[in-house]
Amino acid sequence: MPNVNGFPVWPRPIRALMRPLGASAAGMATQQSFLETIARNIANAETTRTPDGTPYRRQIAVTERDPVSGELTTRIVEDPSAGQMVYDPGHPDANQDGYVEYPNVDVNTELVDLMLARRMHEANASAFQAAKSMLRRALEI
């Protein structure tokens, strides 16, 4: 058994019991990023002019594993696809030909993504509650 300063180092079973709580909390935080991004997309589905003068571009939350730490990280990327061109010569953002470029946000797609993210968040919350309940019971023994 390894020693530190002459004292034996015992396994720390409590830390092992806490891992499911950390995994579920990380999952909920990741899904929160997805939910916020989807909500921003839905809110800007009709925004034809942003502060830089272009139509809003759909944002996508992407989860990746950090190669150094091994932790999951979430970053927001912009969808490069073009928005829909609609003929509306009276619109203030119409081009010389009378077409307005709308954001590349499809509300139906966003709603499906929203339902999936919400369900995944709920599943992580349920797993968190179950792990918390098991930990509580283990401490009562």
Question: What would your notes on this structure say?
Answer:
- This protein is an alpha+beta fold.
- Helices cover 46% and strands 17% of the residues.
- The protein contains two helices and six strands, in the order ββαββββα.
- A two-stranded antiparallel sheet has the order 1-2. A two-stranded antiparallel ribbon has the order 3-4.
- The longest helix is centred in the C-terminal third of the chain and has 34 residues, at 107-140.
- The chain starts with a strand and ends with a helix.
List the helices and strands and how they pair.
Layout: E1 3-4, E2 7-8, H1 13-43, E3 59-65, E4 72-78, E5 85-87, E6 99-101, H2 107-140
Antiparallel strand pairs: 1-2, 3-4, 5-6
Helix pairs in contact: 1-2
Q: What's the gist of this structure?
A:
46% of the residues lie in helices and 17% in strands. It has 2 helices and 6 strands, in the order ββαββββα.
List keywords for this structure.
single chain, alpha+beta, two-stranded antiparallel ribbon, two-stranded antiparallel sheet
The assigned structural class equals alpha+beta
Share of helical residues: 40-55%
Order of strands across the widest beta sheet?
1-2
Strand content: 15-25%
- What is the succession of H and E elements? EEHEEEEH
List the total number of helices.
2
Number of strands: 6
Averaged pLDDT = 88
Which radius of gyration do the C-alpha atoms yield?
24 Å
Return residue spans where pLDDT drops below 50 for at least 5 consecutive residues: none
How many domains, as an integer?
1
Sheet bearing the most strands, described? 2 strands, antiparallel
Large-scale geometry: elongated
Q: What is the first-to-last residue Cα distance?
A: 27 Å
